[in-house]
Design a protein that fits this description.
The chain has 250 residues and is α/β, with parallel strands linked by helices. 48% of the residues lie in helices and 16% in strands.
Amino acid sequence: MKCYKYLLIFILVMTHMTWAADEASLGTISKTSQEQVKNGDLVQLELETTLSPAELEPYKHTFIQKQIYLLDFKKMTSQLYSIEVFLADPVPPAPNAEEKPFKFKLNEFAIETDKNRMAQEFTLMKKDYVPPKSYLFWYIIAFAVVLIILLFYLKTRPDRIFKKKLKERRVRITSELLTLIKTAKTREELEEIYKRRKEIKNYLDLGVSLKRYNKTLNEIQYKPQWDETDLSQVLKAKEKLMNSQVSDGI
């Protein structure tokens, strides 16, 4: 129980760390010149980020900032990209709507609004801004799954060990009883079969033959001495035991 408690605490802490990491900026968008930019423009900007091209790819055809729609990018240096963007018309915020945070911040430049250019015919691949899920989050999920499987294995291991020992004990006792029945010849050995009749009933399926053997031996076991007839009678009952269909139950 304590293991599951610690696992839950670990997942909560790591998830909080993931959210905190997601809230941080992924990069900074800057202009490449001092020229004023307006809505409706197709412009080249710079993006400084530590993201790899593969990690930046999901942001294509999404708004990476207000009015800034990423069309394409080209890697310039290890942490600098040239990005081609479309500057969309400003959209007034909906009343009481929670504004989605953007992963990329602007390096203090403004987009001038030209009302004469509003609602011009620009065709874009519209796609809701959905930031890619943190790799750290998936690492946590994978680790948690492995940990749960490991805990389940450790928890059920004692049961498996117990069942294995129980099976081994059953095999050992079954073999021992079969050997006793097959080799018994003397009075002491034949009486030992009777003494262990409950075990034989539990481990061997001898049915009516066992009942007849027990009845035969019970009729003469209190005699001080067995004669040849008595011994022969019990041995015949034992032979019927051996000829019965035996199932070791394993």
